[in-house]
Amino acid sequence: MPSITKDSNHNSSTSQQDTVIPVKPSHPCSFTSKSSSPPTRSLFKTILTVTVGPTSTPFLVHRELFVSVSPFFAAALNPSYSFLESRSNALHLPSARPIDFEYLVQWIYARTLSHEELDNVKHPAYFRLIRLWQLADALQVEGAKNAVCDFMAKVADRTNSVPTPDDTRAVFGDEGVREGSGLRALMVDLFVWKKTDHLVEGHEDSWDETFLRLLVGKLKRMDGKAQAPWRTMERRCKLYHEHSDGSGCGDTAVEGK
Q1: How far apart are the C-alpha atoms of 4 and 130, rounded to whole Å?
Q2: Which of 166, 131, 141, 150 is nearest to 253 (CA)?
Q3: Residues 33, 245: Cα–Cα separation, whole Å
Q4: Cα distance between residue 14 and residue 100, in whole Å
Q5: Tens digits of residue pLDDT in 7-40
Q6: Which residues pair with 50 in a beta bridge?
Q7: Is the full-model pTM beyond 0.85?
Q8: C-alpha–C-alpha distance, residues 186 and 232, integer Å
Q9: Angle at 154 (CA atoms; ends 248, 170), nearest 5 degrees
Q10: Pairing verdict, β 47-52 and 57-62
């Protein structure tokens, strides 16, 4: 049975997701391939039950929509592979957290990450965004990963904050985000361009060693007059986004600009 194997150490509460909402027009980053994006009318035909976590929290979603944005779902639900899921229209994600999957469902349908638990001005929830990126990576929802990077940059600017030492370990540690990812690059850049010298020097928690090495290297190479790279769409797309089909982001702005 298909499942995701990556897990992390935070606990979250959740509520049952049993409704669906209309999808917004997609940004070029949103679908797996711009050339193969199906017409909207074909995305809402079949209900798929996704149960998440050890409690099997159920989410009722549209099969065609999830297949269109995720090679993981496309493979798991492909009748040619003879998986049980393709016949039962039910799929279980045992190691995912329901709250993280709820955020992902919201993004797939509404193309927004605005949520009271993600968009808190007083206490930016970087760890939730990191977990969402990891879930989207495991389920191969490329557009959601790009949206998380954009949203994290927007939160950092709006709150004038940066991730915590725990967040750096979640991204750069042994069980963290894969090397070479846009999220890693963004986190280093946030510390390079933000006023973080006192935070790094005086924080009582330990910082991830790999993160600190990358940060020092970037600081030695940076141009002191350069603008923070996440503040333009073109640079965000080049440095932090992933496009398996080589399409890029085009000229359309995404949430976070």
Answers
A1: 16
A2: 150
A3: 6
A4: 9
A5: 333 333 333 333 333 344 344 454 444 445 666 7
A6: 59, 91
A7: no
A8: 13
A9: 85
A10: antiparallel
